Amino acid sequence: MAGGTTSETDELRADRERLLAQMRDANERLVLAAIHADELVEIANAAREAAADNEERFRSLVTSSAAVVWSADANGRIVVDRPSWDTFVGIGIDDSDPEGWLIAVHPGDHDLIRRAWADARATGSPYTCQHRLLRANGTFGWVVARAVPIKKAGVVREWIGMMTDVSERVRIEEAREQFIAILGHDLRNPLSAISLGAELLVSLPEPYHRMGGQIARSARRMEIMIRDVMDFTRGRLGGGIPVMIGACDVGAICKELVAEMKQAYPERDLQFTSVGALLGECDTDRMEQVVSNLIGNAITHGQDPIVVTAKDAGDEIELIVESAGPPIPEDSMSRMFEPYSRGIRLMPSGEIAPGLGLGLYIVSEIVRAHGGSIAVTSGARTTFAVRFPRRPAVRRPPT
Which of 98, 110, 199, 280 is the Cys-Cys partner for 390 at CB 3.0 to 4.6 Å? Predict the structure, then answer.
């Protein structure tokens, strides 16, 4: 019995120790879990604080970059952010009216906005509309309203939008259009009258014949300068020089212009060579401008002989204008096609070169509008090489 009792006592003691060990292990796990939970709570709180900070930064960024912030529900009912509305517009809104915010929109733009908003909602695509919005000072400014749909399971549940003040940009665009109009009408019309008078003088005996020729040449230079400035304005501020693509014969264009230049500069050695088929599609007027500017550049800055070559290059047409003379400096090569990059240059005769320094820039813009490329190399001879598709894919309407 004594032996049995001792054995049972040992088993009970062992069971108790196992139970205590399990309890200690469980307590340790509970303590670790509690610590981990505290850490998770701290991480979650930090994440919420970071999200709140990011949201505040985002709202500050949106508010500072937009005239008015707004949103819309799934039914298209627009609600403007009152602080930004009050800052930019400064007049009250009837919240019971779904279109109450239109009170600050120019009456002439209401239908435009309704159509654009209806189209965006019908297709679930981003909304964009430029319209006039009343300012707090009582004048109308221009804004671009944009909104993106927030979708869930493919269904739009709300819209987030903003109206950005673009009044300064519109003012610049209007000034550009007025500038082009002045060049195109107010200067060209009197210049045409001068050219007509010069033609009459040329038909008279000396000294009027010589005087008429001088006036005609000066008028021609003025016309080229006006055209260059108009093209520069369109190229820099109007999204590129527009082209109208149609059937053309590059060989005929080059041949005719070389003949004209020979007549204008009988003392210069101008040569023309054509290789292969040169029929294609281009803007004939603009391509004449490219050839004329490149030949004029060679006459002004290069030496004889000046060789113009038009080549069949398969799906492309290549136009090459070569001239002799000293090589172009490396620093000038890198800025060759930038406007006003050549500065004051002397002709081989020692006279100051005419023009505004826009010719090569305009050439590059016209070539780019045709989907082509232009390159220049300079050593013993300076070569301008233009390549453009025989049938350009880009067709840009005139502006």
Answer: 280
